[in-house]
Write a structure and sequence with these properties.
Blueprint lengths: L12 E7 L6 H9 L6 E8 L5 H11 L3 E6 L6 H10 L4 E4 L5 E2 L3 H11 L5 E9 L10 H4 L2 H4 L4 E3 L5 E3 L2 H8 L9 E4 H4 L14 H12 L2 E12 L9 H19 L5 H24 L3 H14 L3 H9 L5
Parallel strand pairs: 1-2, 1-4, 2-3, 6-10
Antiparallel strand pairs: 4-9, 5-10, 6-9, 7-8, 8-10
Length: about 325
């Protein structure tokens, strides 16, 4: 599918980019979208109050290509806020996302649009991705390969004649218990499906806002997995996900909401596994607090871990907080 862009018509796809202080990577990220084999798209770059040259780079790119729209707003410090602003401004029938330090494969949009065209009932398509380092060097294994996804999720994936996989109703349970599987840069969503949600990315969450949305979209819609690497996630020291405390707290908040929302959809065994997953993350947070001499916070995190799934490790962690300096 390759459609020339006509300014008198709406773009087919809106690519939302929430960006903050990513001058080192933003040009490559935008150009990876401009290099798509499918050209009927718009880029909505929401600058969340950058203090470096990010906005200057964006403005120069937008001057050269009218498909790029730049929205400037005061710094919110929360990815959900600029992403929601981008969705609100989007004119496309389909929505995709790309962070300012990540990259698209040239066939990303075309491949996912083909799936949507062949299966009009599908609301969301996602694919595999590969992690790259600060300099762009890729990991040997893809993200889903490294996580053992193809084996652990096999009972929830139905092979289609196209070679893609339809996610069964059990896939939501799999996401909840084992691996969320979706990533910000790995989805394409019908805007009409997003509009069915009262909230897109919950703005009160600093991290985990994306997981919260993926849970809700998969739970309430029809979804397809494309077993191809179509985006690249850059890991570097300045990424917000490198902050252990923020990452753990976001994970806990998103998974707690999902556990309560899932309700009777989970079997008794799945509920137990969800609780153990939450307990493990609370324990990890408690350990982080302990080694940083934040005893009061550590005690609460270890108690939370025990409340989700009682363990000797949580008790020991709690007791140690009373003897550590």
């Amino acid at each position: 599918m390759n459609t020339t862009t006509d300014k008198s018509t709406k773009p087919l796809v809106s690519v939302i980019m929430a960006v903050y202080n990513c001058e080192k990577y933003i040009e490559a990220a935008v150009k990876s979208v401009l290099a798509q084999t499918e050209n009927n798209f718009e880029i909505i770059a929401v600058n969340d109050g950058s203090t470096d040259s990010t906005v200057l780079i964006l403005d120069a790119l937008a001057t050269a290509d009218s498909r790029i729209k730049v929205i400037n707003q005061p710094n919110s410090g929360r990815p959900a806020i600029p992403r929601n602003a981008g969705i609100s401004a989007a004119g496309g029938e389909f929505i995709a996302f790309l962070d300012g330090d990540d990259l698209y494969h040239p066939e990303k949009i075309a491949t996912l649009l083909n799936v949507m065209a062949e299966s009009p009932e599908v609301d969301l398509v996602f694919h595999d991705f590969r992690c790259i380092n600060e300099d762009g060097k890729p990991n040997e294994e893809t993200y889903l390969q490294a996580a053992g996804f193809h084996i652990s999720a096999s009972s929830t994936l139905q092979l289609l004649s196209s070679g893609d996989y339809r996610c069964t109703t059990g896939f939501y349970n799999y996401m909840s218990v084992y691996l969320t599987s979706l990533h910000t840069s790995s989805v394409l969503i019908r805007k009409s499906r997003l509009d069915m949600e009262a909230v897109w990315f919950p703005e009160e969450l600093l991290i985990g806002e994306d997981i919260d949305l993926w849970f809700r979209l998969v739970k309430g819609g029809k979804n397809v997995f494309v077993d191809e690497v179509l985006s690249f996630y850059r890991q570097h020291g300045e990424s917000i996900t490198r902050d252990d405390e923020k990452t753990s707290k976001g994970f806990i908040a998103a998974h707690k909401r999902n556990y309560l929302r899932g309700g009777k959809l989970f079997t008794s065994e799945e509920r137990l596994l969800c609780k153990r997953r939450l307990a493990s993350e609370c324990f990890h947070l408690g350990y982080h607090y302990s080694i940083n001499h934040r005893s009061t916070d550590a005690r609460q995190a270890f108690m939370d871990s025990f409340s989700w799934s009682p363990s000797v490790a949580a008790v020991k962690g709690y007791l140690k907080t009373w003897i550590l300096p």
